[in-house]
Amino acid sequence: MTPTLPSPQTSAGASRDAPPGPQTHYRICPLCEACCGLEIRTQGQRVTRIQGWQTDVLSAGYLCPKAVALKDLHEDPDRLRTPLMRRNGRNSPLEPASWDEALALIAQRLPAITAAHGRDALALVAGNPSAHKMGLLLYFARLARAAGSKNLFSASTLDQMPKQLQSGLMFGHWLSIGLPDISRTDFMLVIGANPVASNGSMWTVPDFRGKARALRARGGRLVVIDPRRSETAEIADAHHAIRPGADVYLLAAMVHTLFAEGLVRLGPAAPWVNGVAELQAAVAGFAPERVAARCGIGADTIRQFTRDLAAAPRACVYGRIGTCTQVYGKLACWLIDLLNTLTGNLDQPGGVMFSKAPAFAANTAGKPGSGRGVATGRHVGRASGAPEVFGELPIVQLPDEIETPGPGQVRALIVVAGNPVLSVPNGARLAAALDTLDFMVSLDIYCNETARHADVILPGLSPLEEGHYDVPFPQFSHHNQARYSPPVFAAPPGQPPEWQILMRLAGILSGQSDTALQADGALALDNEWLMDDLRRANPSRMDETLAALADWQGPERLVDLALRSGPYGDGFGLRPDGLTLAKVAARPGGIDLGPLQPRLPEMLRTPSGRVELAPPLLLADLPRALADLATPAPDMVIIGRRDVRSNNSWMHNLPTLAKGPVRCTLLLHPTDAQRLGLADGALARIRRGSASVTAPVQISTALMPGVASLPHGWGHDLPGVQLRLAAERPGANLNALLDDRLIDPLSGNAVLSGLAVEVAPAL
Questions:
Q1: pTM of the full structure
Q2: Domains of the chain listed by start with CATH number
Q3: How far apart, in Å, are the Cα atoms of 235 and each of 211, 308, 425?
Q4: Which regions of 241-335 does DSSP assign to beta strands (E)?
Q5: Residue 7's pLDDT band (boundaries 50, 70, 90)?
């Protein structure tokens, strides 16, 4: 007999009739990967103050300027609060609409397109904010399941897929990421990353500056390798500038040196490692003398980096955006973890370790110590032929799938919390392609550069109007913990939460349009799909499981399910002292699950049950890099940069973050500025092929000669965008210069750094 699903209760949250007096709320910041705990004070429906939550188990009171801007985001008059739709076709204006009208138009158009042209005629795009809102992340997967399309894209192929691919090949899962144990290390080498500004990326480490200060206070060293003397380099013991795109050569030369000087020490990981001999042969051609000129770093210095790393009692190497967004991104990411492994610092305190997340981590589920590993190319892009990676195709090739006629041509698109017109190379081409679609839906809190092309825009809630659990980031956390924060404010009447919007879209795509158009349709479909999931996972304990989950609905219910079945969970009553969402919610500031501990071999999910140091896919790509070593480096290349106040494009519309000096400037070294006839503050034209942008010059010795730097995420001067504050200082779009056909092979990641440009005074 199939049990009946209990009727779930409403998730914990504030009432619209909030008490008039001052209130204090605990809240996890959703604006970057640091995930800091906040104390938010309110008076009625107004935010009066935001500060760090002193007893938060992860951030301990730290916060950055972005957190304070949550008030601006919540109150932003440009933030959409009602759907917009085009009532008379693609050429008509976007106008306010009711939820019933907007969903009825979607139900009329989307199923007709997929019925006529097949499931792959619909593409889905998930943007960066999806990872920071549990409703979007958990229910985008359900939307994709209902869509049944191979054309899935996300921001992952703009900044992190090389790291995911390399980690999957070495350790058996895409999200088994080696994390620097900064609290116990003696030597840390940072390359192509700026954690002072990011507070970690694919490494959740709030207050990196404070932790780096503590590292140095106990006698440790921090060394930074970067073309720019970044905020992280400013606090380091040493900074060395490297030619953009040369990371693969430096890192391969360091691995070469470990073998050449007999410095390889596998340490406790030795019984669980495969491929050392193959690796030694593969790097034989990367001697320091051979790569030094291309790196801009002397051979003796390269050897000294390697010796220092090998000699330190506890050491780690960390690389991020700069290592991922280049021609050899996956090789650079791989070589970083090879250095960590070959110096005996893999899975050791003070080296790189693996978190043990309380929920949603594949390397804590199933049989420990081995698994299926990862595979790529289960399908390929119809137009591009690019292989699927982690279920996704390269987002830079979305225009190809739209423009190329024939069976499977993308004719409709759903974009969830994304702005690829700004964030993808050659956004002008993508924008033109979007205008040729038969139908487009955007789920977004703004009418931004991408959403302006949609036939329907469905607005999400303010982050302060939804509960929050960090779904992916405990897998990248420098300290094991579990935290949940309830909504600060209740949602406005009639405004569905984002998970319900996605479920209603899923209902439409799965042929249940009538149900999906009803207010309770999302709840009914969610109940049905949960029952299916539970029946497949553990049919023998359905009654106990359903009874245990009865107090939650939507994403909170999925979080409760994941916590209870996770490594610290109560097992639905089998371990009474274990975690549940109710227990986590009862502890503002979270539950401390302890420092990272060695996890080899149980966390491995490779078929061999070992760390694969020499995956054939990666070994096969090294000769390409070696052959390219003979190619002369360009005279001038461009790199991006990020500012703590403007990590993403939509932050440019928030007064707290937008105020102050102009941040979209072209950094140039004084010798380059003099050679090019450019003065500080002058307007420069940056050109690559037929594409060009202009930006004011900022002369700085922080940047090495031969390199220009323009920040990411700007270009708010396109028609139809409703971001009034951002439009006052639109900035120049770096991605408008970049090549949308240039990707890192296999990972499909866009190449955003180290490309040749011409710089001259703007006439």
A1: 0.96
A2: 161-348+360-367+600-625 (3.40.228.10), 634-761 (2.40.40.20)
A3: 11, 19, 32
A4: 273-274, 315-319
A5: very low
